[in-house]
Amino acid sequence: MSNLIEMSRITKAFGANVAVRDVSLELKSGSVHALMGENGAGKSTLMKILAGVHRPDSGEIYKDGEAVSFESPRHALDFGISTVFQELSLLPNLTIAENMFLGREPVNAIGAIDYRLMHKGTQKALGDLGLSLEPSTLVSELTIAERQFVEIAHGIKADAKIFILDEPTAALNAADVEILNEQIRRLKADGKAIVYISHRMDEIFEICDTVTVMKDGVHIATRPLSELTPESLIAMMVGRELETLFPEAGRAGDSALLEFTDFKLTQDSEPLSFTIKAGEIVALAGLEGQGQREIVRSAIGQFVPYRGTISVRNQTVTLPVAESSGVRSLKALGVGFVPEDRKEEGLLLSLSVSENIELGIHSSRSAILPAQRLRDTVKQTMESLGIKVAGPTAPVASLSGGNQQKVLLGRYLALDIDVLIIEEPTRGVDIGAKAEIYRLLRNLADSGKAILVLSRETVELIGLCDRINVVHDRTIVAEMPAKNASEHKILEAALRQYETENEL
Amino acid sequence: MGAIAANPVLQRAIRVPPAYLVFAVLLITLWVTKPQLMNVNVMGIFIRQVAPLGILVLGQLLVMRVRSIDLSGAGVLLVVNYMISSGIMGDVPAIAYIAMALSVGLAVGLVNGYLVGRRRVSAVIATLAVTVILTGIIQFLASGKPPGDMPGYFNDIYNTKIWIVPTPVAFWLLLTVLMSLFLSRFVFGRFIAAIGENPTASHFSGVPVERTVIASHILASVIASVAALVQSASVAVGSIRLGLEMPIDAVAATILGGVIFGRGDGGVWGPFFGVMCFALLFVVMTSFGVPDPGKQIARGLIILLAAIFYGLSSSEK
Amino acid sequence: MATQSFKTYFGRNSRQGLWYVPLLITVVGAVILTVYTDDFASPQNLSNLLSQAMPLIIVAIGQMIVIVIGGMDLSVGAIISLTTALLALDAPAFVLVPAVFAITALIGLVNGYSIVKLNVHPIIATLSVQFIVVGFARILRPVAGGSVPDIVVSCVAGTVFGIPLTVFWAVIVLLLGWKLIHGSRYGLHLFAIGGGVSSGQEDAAHNFGISDQRNVILAYVCSALFAALAGFYIAGRISSGDPGVGETFALDSVTAVAIGGTQLSGGIGSLHGTLFGAILMVLLSNGMNLANLSAFLQGAIKGAILLLVVSLQSRKKMGL
Fold first, then answer.
1. Is the domain of A423 the same as that of A407?
2. Among A120, B152, C49, C227, which is most buried by a count of CB atoms within 10 Å?
């Protein structure tokens, strides 16, 4: 077996956040290479570099021993690298066939697109996957699983040598997964190299030959799967001691501050309920895309759940709420929502630190009132959060990620809310600032507030929170006190192994 | 391009509204070539000419700060102008005209606000269509002929002076100061700044985005009706010509003044000087004998160059 | 299986928007006019109607090309005016005609380049270019007048084998439009770019390997060239230059395209929808003329129709 592709010492940073650091990877023809790691470990970024979506900051890619660099996805495809990405990138207003052939459509004698040929090719590619979808159906009319299959068909139809499958099974059920596995075995038999990213252990052990584990953007190990068991693989993925990063756990009060009751995300999902008391920090954990984000965003009207109620203290809100007023009505009840995407959804980057902090207070008031001078509040907030900046008039864009996150938190601190819902509290924040943010959140809880945290970093949830709710398939499948939790347990619960193990 | 992003001096320079520079250049040009024009009386007349435009700009900058645009000012202008000069309101005191103008502004603003803020119609298309509709109706009512004379007292007020400042200019200055205070000292101003910077983040911060956009459009149209009153006072005879020049000039002056689709680097005074540029520009062009079409080309070039200037500086981010 | 054949039928077709609505209204309107007026259905009147509709059909096809990618071209009216003004210059046709198309292509290039490379909003870019172009048209020809070369007139007026030349124009323009929009890879790529824009995944088309920047610039060149073609046709009809003749075409073409079921947010639309939209607009003018409605009121009604049609289309983005 020869090395088809070798990625050597690849590093890629987005701003201050290093997504991939000095990672090397070798792909052999006729082999399926699993890439594993927790959410945010850098797997997708590494694969996007191979697919020509991102350019590496440093490092080389060798194909058959020769250095290559990809300017664009098209360029990478010309080199024989075909990708099925995790997020759907099909164009909804084009048909299946048009999506399948986009960018390299066959034309007939008069230069028009040869739909007959395209439909035939599409039908065959879909047929190989056991699908009988009509090629002239618009993608916007397909279900999520059908779209996923079209995406897979698009990826593996290409006459490529290397196939990257980034969580292709996220939206598929067991029977569908078997169809896909059949195709992967076929590709393998044809001497192709396949990179397979998945969180499902059974799939990994069934079809992969080698596994590379990544964590925090760093290469941990590469082993043949025959040497591993699911347990030892999970241990490799988790494998690090808890840093002295986290503040001491607090003491929960008696009064329930935030309650989700009889909540159903979609019509066919299991109902869920949970309560957060004053002084508590509670997490929603789980693998990417299991519905945790939709659950919290239902509270501000960004997502329309099937049904449910939210109670803050004793005031009850029946879901769904209107998107245009969701944030405001929640805020009126004393709940702050800190969105994940600090730059797009959270901060006003060219505005000053004080304007960003003040906005929370101002937006609770009527537009025609004079804007209060809040110099003291801003000063106090900045001091209590330890925001390092030249002055309150500095634009937020000039701050480091950690200080930006503190400014965002400061907006809610200055508002004096009772409940904080926070997504990814430390995304793109360096380790020192992380510790500070954890302490700030704990102090907030200790002062009698309730905090709901959503994070992809399991370590963070264990260290920071009092209780952890594990979300799988749009509902809560396990609840555990953080002091009994481990990354291993959470991962297993998220992979739906937790319950069965407990029964044994 | 990367060099600009890296250099803090250049980065600051690129945020200074072009209006100040253009104004200085035009002033010097005028001083050197036509020194006889540089006296208080003559300049007063020039500046008085752009007072309606200056007032219109106060509304335009508001909607452009929230990433919208308002081209319905032309329609408001026409309606108010017609209502006053056609005599269909009969012999009424000035206050009735003012009330009429403000209600026209309010009504148009409500329509614009609903279409842009609630229905999410493209602001250019919506406000342009409103102008086309209003123009058609007024031209129909006037049967295509100029309606008649303006009441004399309008023009009398227009020609007065407060000390050495023509009254319309003083009024314009007063409104500019008020708008400046409204934007800097009131919660509304904070909302405008936040939405301009990032509507999504503003929404997540609890800013009522939709309501603020609608309110901006209503305010802009009411301000347009005030501009229409001043404009009506400046002419002796009513007109029904479809004229997109005013709102387009307002857009150009606003962009020149450093305010464009969300960015408000120029505040209120940047666009103020943008309008002053237009005052001088018309004088310079007229004194050099540039014909009307030449002015139109200049108008287009100014908008395009200013937009390119901001397009390039915002792609640095 | 019934749903399958249903999907087969409506699959690619449902990307074409609600084109049958203007068709239906046109047919109903034509039937009413045939019944209530004496000579609506006469070959003479239909031929007149077609030649009235021709310029709008041509411009609307170009307008549709940029609207499909989520853009808009407000300079098309100015380009029509400039074309007639250029053609009425005192120079031989073999100089004028190539010059017209070269200059208008350049205008399209300026539009496209400002939008794609200089990051200017399409509406602002084309609106300011409109002023510049009209300015030049007015310098060349301050008031309507002059005369265009005979060859231009004979390309438009007259008949061949007893069939009016306008019919040939219609066939050629529609074939050209069909080829560009529905019959080529370029057309599909336009829909792909527009679909990406309207669904908030601007990079999607690029990730499929489509050179989106070049395609977008080319789209604005196309719309400018179609406007020039319309200007050529009008110049042939009026056999003179008129710097104001194109004034209403910018908004009228947007209205025609929108009536034809093309989404202003991009990605959905069809050539035949645009054709029916343009015909419906002209039929409406025709009907309003027959009803002796004031020209001013007709303008207001057209504005109201535009407002109605665009406010029925849903859009996520607020503002411009």
1. no
2. C227
Q: What is the DSSP string of B211-278?
A: HHHHHHHHHHHHHHHHHHHHHHHH-SB-------HHHHHHHHHHHHTTEETTEETTTTHHHHHHHHHH
> Which residue in B has a C-alpha nearest to residue C293's C-alpha?
B140
Asked if B10 and B4 touch (Cβ cutoff 8 Å), the reply is yes
Same domain, A321 and A406: no
ipTM attached to this prediction: 0.85
A422 and A411 share one domain:
no
Q: Is A364 within 8 Å of chain B by CB?
A: yes
> What are C48-106's pLDDT values in tens digits?
889 999 999 999 999 999 999 999 999 999 999 999 999 999 899 999 999 999 999 99
Please state, as a whole number, how many other Cβ atoms lie within 10 Å of the Cβ of residue A190: 10
For the full predicted model, state whether its pTM sits above 0.80.
Answer: yes
A39 neighbors A17 (Cβ within 8 angstroms): no
Angle B245-256/B51-65 helices, nearest 10 degrees? 60
The total number of structural domains in chain C stands at: 1
Q: Does A104 share its domain with A234?
A: yes
CATH number at residue A307: 3.40.50.300
Domain count for chain A = 3
Q: What is the SS3 assignment for C108-148?
A: HHHHHHHHHCCCCCHHHHHHHHHHHHHHHHHHHCCCCECCC
Structural domain that includes position A455 = 251-334+418-430+447-504
Q: Do the Cβ atoms of A94 and C192 come within 8 Å?
A: yes
Domain ranges for chain B: 17-316
Same-domain check for residues A58 and A181 = yes
The correct CATH number of B17-316 out of 1.20.120, 1.10.3470, 2.60.40, 1.20.1280 is 1.10.3470
Contact C303 B136 (CB under 8 A): yes
3-class DSSP assignment, residue A66: strand
Q: What angle, 0 to 180 degrees and rounded to 10, lies between the N-to-C axes of helices B51-65 and B187-197?
A: 60
**Distances, alpha carbon A197 to alpha carbons B259, B314, C207, C267, in Å:** 47, 37, 20, 32
In eight-state DSSP terms, residue A428 is T
Q: Which domain holds residue C146?
A: 53-277
CA A117 to chain centre: 38
Residue whose tokens read 């380049």: C113
The type of residue at C262 is T
User: Rounded to an integer, what distance in angstroms lies between the CA atom of residue C274 and that of residue C177?
Assistant: 10
Q: Does the beta carbon of B189 lie under 8 angstroms from any beta carbon of chain A?
A: yes
Query: Contact C251/C106 with Cβ under 8 angstroms?
Result: no
pLDDT tens digits, residue range A124-136?
888 887 788 889 8
Q: How far is C110 from chain B (nearest CA, A)?
A: 10
A328 & A349 share domain: no
Element (H, E) at A32: strand A31-36
